[in-house]
Amino acid sequence: MAQNSRKKPNILVTGTPGTGKTTTSFSLAEATQLRHINIGELVREKNLHDGWDDQFDCHIINEDLVCDELEDLMEEGGNIVDYHGCDFFPERWFDRVVVLQTDNSVLYDRLSTRGYTGSKLSNNIECEIFQVLLEEAKESYPEDVVVALKSDTVDDITRNVASLTDWVRSWQPKA
After folding, report:
1. Per the record, which residues fall in region Disordered (predicted)?
2. Which domain holds residue 36?
3. Mean pLDDT of 86-110
């Protein structure tokens, strides 16, 4: 099935942990009736990983297994994919790639509250400072597909969901 035969768009919501990906994706799915796919949950539920990383306290996802698992759903369209990485997903899957960005002091507090410490905390803060996810998105997808959105407050998230909902409603399959 070609990209232009999808009746609904696919959106990737990415960004450093703590930027509001899951909150934004969940609210956007409610507003648009698109399917929310949280990659972290999918990896845990379907064992799409190669074990545990003790240093970063997380699963080592198997990107090939994740892509195989999602292929049919993505071709069908109507998905909001929520994950902190983006460079391993096929470019053809996404009509919009949203990179959420959060001020470092806000992010530090959010991650500390989640129990992030040591290298896990500092690596995520550095990732945000150096805009690693935005660069990854820009290198992996066409420029007109990638959008960076501020995600510091509940108001920012509400505004982002409204803006993305408008985008979904006006989306047209490529001819």
Report:
1. 1-23
2. 14-163
3. 97
